[in-house]
Amino acid sequence: MTDNAGKTIILLYIGFAFLYKKVIGMKIIKILNNNVAVTINDKGHETIVMGNGIVFKRKVGDELDPAKVDKTFTLLDKNVSSKFQELLTDIPMEHILLVEQIINYAKIKLGKKLNDNIYVTLPDHISGAIQRYREGSILKNPLLWDVRRFYKDEFEVGLKANQVVEKETGVRFLEDEAAFIALHFINAEINGEISSTYELIRIMQEIADIVRNYFSIVFDENSLYYYRFITHLKFFAQRILNNTHYDDDNEELLDAIKVKHKKAFQCVQKVRAFVLKKYKYDLSNEEMLYLTVHIARITKNL
Questions:
Q1: Could you please report the per-residue DSSP string of 175-186?
Q2: Which residues contact 124 (CB under 8 A, 6 or more apart)?
Q3: H or E stretch covering 237
Q4: Residue 44 has what DSSP assignment?
Q5: Mind listing the pLDDT tens digit for each residue in 217-248?
Q6: Which of 59, 124, 152, 233 has the most neighbouring CB atoms within 10 Å?
Q7: What is the pTM of this model?
């Protein structure tokens, strides 16, 4: 055996021994049911550990059997972790596991950091929806078309969630449910509440309607310019709700833009008047500049 090969085997052995010690050294601090326990990980964080019969005939203070550990969840927010633990005692384990599939898919698809609350709100919603559908109680989503239009990626996650639910439970959700699920991910992206997400979409819809009606157009929702316009509206609507502004230092550039894109700027003036009247939010020069540019792009072929 060469020296390098010997060193590799030793390193692998040390790594395996460390990993084994790390798992087996986790003591039970709380038992939720036969399949779920709460432990403290090596960084001092509460970790929820799942496995078939993992806590059977065990008590607080005992060490876990690493061979029975299937899933671990470490939620750094103690309040969220506490709610998640409560949820685990109320809904079936299979619902938790199928939602984990959906969240993992969403992290890859969206490429965005999600608030830990998603581990509470989404399992609670999907488990309740599965029960509702089995009882024949199906809710229509009034925001279906707006979610589909403004949040295409999140809506695709919702459609994927529908597929996962049908595969794992046999329950077939409608697209309305995909939009409800998408709203949970939108909410997790902006760290807000579902109610503020509804307000966000309403503001986007109102502004888009002003632009569409002013130019009497139908948006090409597959165009790059439309995607950029909608992305701008998302952040613009958030600023309205949070009452925050861009730095107001672009008056000279705005003067040039409103001459170059006269019709787009006139449309922005209508948006400005509407937002000021309804939301008591006045657009800065910077806001008007960017909005004018985006509107000019989506209407350039008129």
A1: HHHHHHHHHHHH
A2: 87, 91
A3: helix 224-242
A4: S
A5: 999 888 888 888 998 898 899 889 988 876 66
A6: 233
A7: 0.71
